[in-house]
Specification:
312 residues; 6-stranded mixed beta sheet; single chain; alpha/beta
Length: 312
């Protein structure tokens, strides 16, 4: 069910949500969080689709904030808010409200969003493309327990990574880091099996890939070795090589959903290592809403390196 509201207010939007739930006989008590998506018209469709797919695992109220550019002189002088309310089959397993803000309303998006948050429920803010320099100090980011950015979606991802280093606050995370979860899991399992001291390391990827840089910094922090960055044709991260006194530990994924794991004195084996869609990445981030300490370690490239290297 969809309800269109023109030149509206937060109060009218709340009434429309109640009206929509009553019409389809669905209560709001099953929703576990509010997700705020801050995007533009160009990226709104894909972002909403990803959030709706993630809502099958995490039923939520999704508020999509779109700050519209003025198209006419009247738009520049008249501040107003248009909204589209979706409930039922049109909104995954939760509710979706698309907020299009014009004029001065765009400068006070937090005042519009605040009355629409689910009471006593966590708030997550996601910027699919362009995020503020300091997400925690952004008016919308300040409302959230978790703030999700995506360095891979910007024009200069490595520059964005360095910005995230200086602006990091507990609760920040990035989908460039989330994409590494399968790699990190497989590397940890491989190190458990090899039981050898790491003496060298290399990460292979396409140029300017933020996930590869985060992975290299994480390995440096956790293993206490310098990690070589090797440029390949991609796509994304294509391999990790860890040198030991017994031989190399290699995870190689030149293309496709399968990777090859090679351990010293063991036959090579094939592993599933696909590139996951955005909806899976968002769903993973919503499983834990506490501070991502390992993301902070990877950003800064620092941690308990000597202790971890000795243990491995």
């Amino acid at each position: 069910m969809k309800i269109d509201l023109t030149d509206t207010t937060a109060s009218k939007i709340n009434k429309a949500l109640v009206q929509g739930r009553r019409a389809i006989g669905t209560p709001a008590v099953g929703m576990v969080l509010t997700m705020v998506i801050v995007t533009d018209e160009e990226n709104a469709y894909d972002s909403i689709k990803a959030a709706e797919e993630a809502s099958h695992e995490h039923p939520s109220r999704t508020l999509v904030v779109i700050k519209r550019h003025a198209r006419t002189p009247r738009d520049r002088t008249r501040a107003h808010l248009d909204a589209e309310v979706r409930v039922g089959a049109d909104a995954g397993t939760g509710e979706t409200v698309i907020l299009r803000m014009y004029g001065e309303v765009s400068d006070h998006a937090d005042s519009v969003v605040l009355p629409l948050l689910l009471p006593d429920a966590p708030v997550v803010v996601w910027w699919p493309v362009n995020a503020p320099d300091v997400p925690a100090k952004d008016p919308l980011g300040a409302l959230a327990q978790r703030r999700i950015t995506d360095m891979y979606a910007v024009e200069a991802p490595i520059a964005a990574l360095e910005q995230r280093v200086t602006s990091y606050a507990p609760g920040d995370t990035d989908l460039a880091w989330t994409r590494l979860t399968p790699w990190r899991s497989m590397l940890a399992a491989a190190l458990d099996q090899a039981r050898a001291r790491i003496i060298s390391a290399a990460v292979e990827s396409e140029a300017d890939n933020p996930s590869a840089e985060l992975l290299a910094r994480w390995l440096e922090a956790r293993l206490g070795v310098s990690v070589e960055r090797v440029i390949t044709a991609g796509p994304v991260v294509t391999g990790v090589r860890l040198g030991t006194e017994k031989g190399e530990i290699v995870i190689d994924r030149p293309e496709g959903p399968l990777a090859t794991l090679t351990l010293p004195d063991q036959p090579a084996r094939t592993l599933a290592l696909k590139v996951r869609p955005t909806s899976e990445l968002i769903a993973e981030e919503l499983r834990r809403l506490d501070a991502d300490e390992m993301y902070a370690v990877a950003l800064r490239g620092e941690g308990t390196a000597k202790e971890t290297a000795a243990h491995v």
